Amino acid sequence: MNEEYDVIVLGTGLTECILSGIMSVNGKKVLHMDRNPYYGGESASITPLEDLYKRFKIPGSPPESMGRGRDWNVDLIPKFLMANGLMGLFEKRRFRKFLVYVANFDEKDPRTFEGIDPMKTTMREVYKKFDLGQDVIDFTGHALALYRTDDYLDQPCCETINRIKLYSESLARYGKSPYLYPLYGLGELPQGFARLSAIYGGTYMLNKPIEEIIVQNGKVIGVKSEGEIARCKQLICDPSYVKDQVEKVGQVIRVICILSHPIKNTNDANSCQIIIPQNQVNRKSDIYVCMISSAHNVAAQGKYIAIVSTTVETKEPEKEIRPALELLEPIEQKFISISDLLVPKDLGTESQIFISRTYDATTHFETTCDDIKNIYKRMTGSEFDFEEMKRKKNDIYGED
């Protein structure tokens, strides 16, 4: 391990694994370590089910009715991936007219603007132009455009329209949902990017205790593990490795629920995402529900996993998620956790230590992708070019 690397990565959460893969593809010499013996970090998939009971200190063993323990792969932090980056028929003519406008919108073609200036007209004004009601506005902004607050309403509409367009195009790609979810749980994703990194020369070490991050003259120069020092020019890590360099900005409550039935009023769907907009429940934050099932090889036959999450706003967080839990009744077993939202205290450009954010309450990857792109830009000084990444991947795998 006494070598010099361009980048050392600590932690195997999805953010760290994606960045490790990107840096390796870009020709960087990468060493990737984790103190844990498994991939995924705080976003790991837990199997068998008995281990989930132990992790949450639930007394006893899972009942026989839950099937074989090894049939379960339970994500601690589930997130859907947008299929391209509607949901039944919409009855309101005005909303359909709005969606047609979005589908035809092209920010490079003024002929599609219909009197709207995408760089000046606010989204609030666009909703007014199409005479959309408050419930439809809440639904559009939070479930389609995936905003977490209503701040976007008074900002130029271009980004929001493009977000809704992405949702529609993602839906059109597969027909029933705009989202994807990997079989056997999200734990497969970090391993996939780890393999990508390895193909390009990256070195992985699991179950490796980290004794010290070595900083000299305010800049990282290496990492010490088991008495050996690996030198580096840049370091990527999750907040758990640098607790003195992050700050708490809130908390998230998550409740993993095991069900023996699909969620009511979802046409017996074997997976779904429900977003309860903040305004609908007199809150500042949306409430998210992610439901998956045996169809994804994450649960025993006939069983469903629903995970409820939201940003904590009061001293009684369990009461805050009641509107979502009521949608899931009856619930066979619950596993409740409350975790801190941690963010880096600085950008890392001086120390060259680039720290990821902890995962928020959302059940989609939009904010995680934003964090990855942000760290990449801070490390390299340039925007992440996805097309270039695809080209390099195709050099190895061929076109798909």
Automatic annotation (TrEMBL):
Role, per record: GDP-dissociation inhibitor preventing the GDP to GTP exchange of most Rab proteins. By keeping these small GTPases in their inactive GDP-bound form regulates intracellular membrane trafficking. Negatively regulates protein transport to the cilium and ciliogenesis through the inhibition of RAB8A. Regulates the GDP/GTP exchange reaction of most RAB proteins by inhibiting the dissociation of GDP from them, and the subsequent binding of GTP.
UniProt entry keywords in alphabetical sequence: Acetylation, Cytoplasm, Golgi apparatus, GTPase activation, Membrane, Phosphoprotein
Signal peptide: none
GO MF annotation terms: GTPase activator activity; Rab GDP-dissociation inhibitor activity
Assembly and interaction partners: Interacts with RHOH. Interacts with the GDP-bound inactive forms of RAB3A, RAB3B, RAB3C, RAB5A, RAB5B, RAB5C, RAB8A, RAB8B, RAB10, RAB12, RAB35, and RAB43; binds RAB3D to a lesser extent. Interacts with DZIP1; this interaction negatively regulates the interaction of GDI2 with GDP-bound RAB8A.
Residue stretches in coiled coil: none
Family annotation (InterPro entries): FAD/NAD-bd_sf, GDP_dissociation_inhibitor, RabGDI
Places the protein is found: Cytoplasm; Golgi apparatus, trans-Golgi network; Membrane
A GO cellular component entry from the record: Golgi apparatus
Name of the featured protein: Rab GDP dissociation inhibitor
One GO term of the biological process aspect: vesicle-mediated transport
Primary localization class, coarse: cytoplasm
UniProt key word Transcription: no
Membrane topology classification: Peripheral membrane protein
Family assignment from sequence similarity: Belongs to the Rab GDI family.
